[in-house]
Amino acid sequence: MFGPEGPSLRELAVQALSSVERGYDLLAPRFDHTPFRTPDSVLDAVARALARSGPFGTGLDLCCGTGAGVGVLSRMCAESVTGVDFSAGMLAVARRRVPQPEGGPRLAWVRADGRALPFGPAFDLVVSFGAFGHFLPEELPGLFTQVHGVLRPGGRFAFPVVAPPRPGSRAYWTLLGFDAVMRVRNAVRRPAFVMYYRAFGLGRVRHELERAGFAVELYALPEFGRRRDGSPRVRMVLARRLP
User: Fold this and answer.
1) What tens digit of pLDDT does each residue of 231-240 get?
2) What residue stretches are annotated with the Methyltransferase domain (predicted)?
3) pTM of the full structure
């Protein structure tokens, strides 16, 4: 479906009819050849924006998948970088794909659920790329509380947010249709496969971050330009853990 190295339509169907964890275990060997993997252009833009706030000592890639965000952290962090994901298959690919950088931070990989992180306040920077569609809106307070708990006071939580498509556009109807299909699937089959692209609104996200104890700043990523109304197409959210 996504080229010769990507998954077939049948493989995607099997994934979608599985649980989220099992689905990503199955998709892991081909994940980097799908549009679900965060593009390098976004990773690089976030790295450039974060460089203004660094350097950092320790970093955590939340829901790291095959380790794309770990590469960003390896540029930012001097001491150690940890990737955490609940898919054993994704972590196995990440271990093979991301080598220990010579003279760089120590790398570690941990299998865990982002809603129950097995760490104390050990990190200066947490990043996440493309994972929030797998959390229901009511799960955001707990997720952000978990992130708050693993950051040292003054630590940062950073992630990119793409502006929603213009109502009536092709992208708008595509995302609306995808979410509708997933809701029907989850209404008739268990376990659920939570993947909703339109559930992560910036206003609510900012509110929940502030409730969890963060001071929130928004940075436009100029590499992606602006919409007709002048607003950025892509922003980086940078949330600082308050004492």
Assistant:
1) 999 999 999 9
2) 60-155
3) 0.90
